[in-house]
Amino acid sequence: VHQSKMDFFCKLGYSKQDICKVLENLGQEALEDDVLKELIRMGSKPQALESQAQPSQLKLVARGSCSTTPGLRWLGEDENDSSDSLRPIVIDGSNVAMSHGNKEVFSCWGIQLAVDWFRERGHTYIKVFVPLWRKEPPRQDSPIADQHILEELEKQSVLVYTPSRKVKGKRVVCYDDRYIVKVAYEQDGVIVSNDHYRDLQNENPEWKWFIEQRLLMYSFVSNRFMPPDDPLGRHGPTLSNFLSKKPVLPEKKWQPCPYGKKCTYGSKCKFYHPERQHQAQLSVADELRAKTKVPLALGKEEERCQCSP
């Protein structure tokens, strides 16, 4: 009986301490109405009422400031930062470094230029994949320039080395392209490379579509990393829409009609007519038909009025 009363009044929102005090004063066999009256007499309130009674802490905001509380967000605004609207970037480090070195030298400075370009745009998730054997000292058959940049990017958790080892003096290298495509596919990001990955396209049909739609090619112009403004062609999305998760559709621009006021197409004209904004865009033939129907209709109404008693 004691436990049932405790559960009943706890559901109403009263604290267990107040309930125990009342039951000790009135006894365990007291009626629920008597217990409730005693709780009210003691001044005990349910927790829900106490939270409502407490005044909300309002913060004074300077006039004209744009700061808002977390609960007062605009409709459609995400809780995350604007950087979350940008796609993750996965860079083919070997491809970028060899392109910057004119396919003769593994230029690590090219990787740094690409990473800086995406950082300036606000991308937070940037990963660069490079084979592990590039950490070895440079040789004549595989020269490397600015190798210290790889160490700095690794400390920043940007650069990732793909596994490689030596077996009986021969180097065994894992296929780094598969790492690049797999991570970009899982993160729903963008691959930065001039490689088409044709072997991986044939290996997985899902990867085929992803590589065709999410491959960002580039060029180096005087130590300047330059991706194209139209990554998927002239009729495709812009570079900003290509790199964002929420693309912004361009506003439709109407081309003015070359015939102007002399146009006879009316509503069928596909061009813009500023003089017809507040007019029904009918063709000339339709306007003539509408004008001829009006007097005919008026004449029939007059005849009906004359014939009616």
From TrEMBL:
Keywords: Endonuclease, Hydrolase, Magnesium, Metal-binding, Nuclease, Zinc, Zinc-finger. PROSITE patterns: ZF_C3H1. Pfam families: RNase_Zc3h12a, UBA_6. Residues 251-276 form the C3H1-type domain. A zinc finger (C3H1-type) spans 251-276. Its cofactor is Mg(2+). GO terms for cellular component: cytoplasmic ribonucleoprotein granule; nucleus. Gene3D superfamilies: 3.40.50.11980. It comes from the Eukaryota. Belongs to the ZC3H12 family. This is ZC12D ribonuclease. It comes from Nicator chloris. The gene is Zc3h12d.
